[in-house]
Design goal:
It is flat and about 40 Å long. The protein is built from 2 helices and 5 strands; from the N terminus they run ββββαβα. The protein has a single domain, classed as Ribosomal protein S16 (S16 Ribosomal Protein, Chain: A, 2-Layer Sandwich). The chain is 32% helix and 35% strand. It is an alpha+beta fold and 88 residues long.
């Protein structure tokens, strides 16, 4: 089964996560098929906190990929950000 989840990167005490498409049997930080975004929980000031390639996300979902619970939460947050940006 293909799953969309986060892979941890960054330094000690300074996490950075890549949003990846991978086989569910692969390790968290192991081999992946495609990188479709990132999440930086420690972003400050003008740094970008979250970026998702929505066209690739919908493509993989149409192919049957499942979202992890954290990625589901982040996609909802990204949608709210996009909506707020468009209204401004």
């Amino acid at each position: 089964m293909v799953i969309i989840r986060l892979a941890r990167g960054g330094a000690k005490k300074r996490p950075f996560f890549n949003m990846i498409v991978t086989d569910s049997r692969c390790r968290r930080d192991g081999r992946f098929i495609e990188r479709i975004g990132f999440y930086n929980p420690r972003a400050t000031g003008s740094e970008e906190m979250l970026r998702i390639q929505m066209d690739r996300l919908t493509h993989w979902q149409s192919q049957g990929a499942q979202l992890s619970s954290t990625v589901t939460r982040l996609v909802k947050q990204f949608g709210a950000q996009q909506k707020a940006t468009q209204e401004s």
